[in-house]
Design a protein that fits this description.
Radius of gyration: 32 Å
Strand order of the largest sheet: 2-3-8-5-7-6
Strand content: 15-25%
Structural class: alpha+beta
Distance between the termini: 26 Å
Helix content: 40-55%
Order of helices and strands: HHEHHEEHEEHEEHEHEHEHHHHEEHHH
């Protein structure tokens, strides 16, 4: 029966090619759509992590909830004790120290309240690969009284590299202190809101401005995102206790989770739509083919075979078509994904961002497998639904189709 099914398919080349084209188109479309969405997930995740948040951050217990109101009450006084414990972990590539506070920036004409991050410049530059410098340069470890501004801050205060600004802040003792800084660069991160309010200075200068040796957070850079949850568990057992708390990048910014949920819903609907298109197009092709072969079915039944035999023969034919078509669809989809990714797809800035990016089509084994199964199942289901009636036409009536 299998050999007969193959002979029937090769004998009816035109009909076979039409059905194959429908399957290939649907499977390839699913692979391209799934690869595009997966690339959005990947790039958004990397931008969230490698823009400024890191993989996870460690604070004094209570800082995340109450630190904005009383930032100096929730500082890490002895970061060296934590650094000594985590510095030797193989999954940790770097631990960055940060000192966060609010200050008043003055350009001799107007003031602006800003969020200030005291950072370790060289370590931050290495981790924050998704934070770009749009004017001037990055901070370096040799800088002392240098500052880089978020793009929005620079625009609002009409500042450019080479200008000087004065920063006023409250020390940990409650007194006012001020320092003058030279603007050396303007940065653009993934978050438009952050760029509109944030500036960065070397952490040594931030400590001088606040008159403290403490800091607010330790930011972890890891070898891979898959180590985030295991590291959180390890920190909970060996470091945190009641003194510290840790937040992952997902907890620090829920934009990624919401975006993934949105695209998963959209891609699920797209899969259903493509499945429906493939099912209807293949069903139409299979139905036309079966109705045109009623005379052939009558002859087969006249020589002693049952209608069930003919029905099984048609299902086998379409199972072969579904397998071949789905396999070709996967090959075409992967080929198109590679070609498109060589060029890239220019994309506008996402919501809440000023940074445009280039999208690619990622080849995801899971998406390819699902697309193959959808192509195969759609073809077999089409045969099961449309081929029963033509195979049950009375033999005498079916034979008249041969005249």
């Amino acid at each position: 029966m299998f050999r007969l099914a193959l002979r029937n398919l090769t004998r009816q080349k035109g009909r076979t090619m039409i059905t194959l084209a429908s399957i290939v188109f649907g499977v390839a479309a699913l692979i391209l759509a799934g690869g595009f969405v997966e690339d959005i997930y990947h790039q958004l995740r990397d931008a969230t992590i490698k823009s400024r948040l890191g993989y996870l951050q460690l604070y004094r217990a209570g800082y995340y909830e109450f630190g904005r109101r009383e930032p100096y009450d929730y500082m890490i006084e002895d970061p060296e004790a934590v650094l000594e414990k985590v510095g030797t972990l193989p999954v940790v590539t770097e631990v960055l120290q940060r000192l966060n506070f609010t200050g008043l920036l003055n350009n001799s004409r107007t003031d602006r309240s800003v969020i200030v991050e005291g950072i370790e410049p060289e370590k931050e530059n290495e981790m924050a690969s998704f934070m770009s410098v749009v004017a001037g340069r990055e901070l370096s470890d040799d800088d002392a009284y240098a500052i880089v501004l978020g793009e929005g801050v620079a625009t609002a205060l009409a500042l450019a590299p080479g200008d000087y600004v004065t920063m006023v802040a409250t020390t940990t003792s409650g007194f006012m202190n001020s320092l003058e800084f030279e603007v050396v660069g303007v940065f653009r991160s993934f978050s438009k809101d952050f760029d509109a309010r944030a500036v960065r200075i070397p952490i040594a200068t931030a400590r001088e401005l606040l008159d403290t040796t403490a800091l607010h957070s330790l930011v972890f850079s890891l070898t891979d995102v898959s180590y985030v949850d295991p590291l959180v568990d390890w920190l909970g057992q060996h470091v945190l206790g009641e003194r510290y708390e840790v937040k992952t990048w997902l907890e620090l910014d829920d934009f990624y989770a919401k975006t993934v949920a949105l695209y998963q819903s959209q891609f699920g609907v797209l899969q259903v739509i493509i499945l429906g298109i493939v099912l209807l197009s293949v069903a139409n092709s299979v139905s036309m083919t079966a109705n045109e072969r009623v005379g052939e079915f009558g002859t087969i039944r006249a020589i002693g075979h049952t209608s069930s035999y003919v029905y099984r023969l048609l299902v086998i034919e379409n199972a072969i078509l579904g397998t071949v078509g789905a396999a070709l669809g996967v090959a075409v989809g992967i080929g198109l994904a590679v070609l498109i990714s060589e060029v890239g797809i220019p994309m506008p800035p996402p919501p809440s961002s000023n940074a445009a990016y280039t999208a690619y089509i990622r080849i995801v084994p899971g998406v390819c497998l699902v697309a193959f199964l959808i192509g195969f199942v759609a073809t077999v289901v089409s045969a099961l639904l449309t081929c029963r009636q033509p195979t049950r036409t009375p033999i005498a009536l079916a034979l008249t189709r041969n005249i």
